Amino acid sequence: MVFWVFGYGSLVWNPGFEFDEKIMGFIKDYKRVFDLACIDHRGTPDHPARTCTLEEAEGAICWGVAYCVRGGPERERAAMEYLEQRECEYDKKTLVDFYKKEDMSQPTLQGVIVFTSTPDKISNKYYLGPAPLEDMARQIATAFGPCGNNRDYLFRLEKALFDIEHEDDHIIELANEVRKVLGTAGKIDKKLVGPSRIPLKDNVPSLKLLPLQEAIATDSA
Predict the structure, then answer these.
(1) E runs forming strands in the chain
(2) pLDDT tens digits, residue range 44-67?
(3) Is 58 a catalytic residue?
(4) Which residue of the set 87, 89, 158, 177 is catalytic?
(5) For the whole model, what pTM was predicted?
């Protein structure tokens, strides 16, 4: 048995398991949204963090990293057990096609596992649903848990996507809004938050991400 898993959130910069190969690329018809609660890593039951999940969106593409695990049943089982525990808020494993930049029309891999969540608050207790940008930013700016601050997760994801040269406009916009909240509170940790960003403007064809300072937050999901 050999399996591939697609990372689009913290798995991009911190896989946390042994793998044999990784490939940068994307999946189609999905986009990142911060609609999922985390109550045991970067949040608590009383103040859940917002973390990244995927939402179906025709025509969208989501860049990330595919990891391959091979080498026998025990090694593969250990990796999957680790992933299932880490991604416990995600209630579905979806199989997707994975593409590389070199050939964007034909999938490089098929049957790649991606952890996703059911967008329904009744059947999925971790699903928060969408919220106004300002409300999400306030929640992310203030939530924290055993593995660190919620904002660290967002800023690390922003930097990881910048490092692979495939920024996500929604992530940049949300991160900028969180910086506004921290600035208004007057408690900015510049080493953690990174430099100020250029304000978003209407009719800008593409959001550009400036170089970030090295992140210093704890390494976790």
Answers:
(1) 3-7, 21-38, 49-69, 92-98, 109-116, 144-145, 148-149
(2) 999 999 999 999 999 999 999 999
(3) no
(4) 87
(5) 0.80
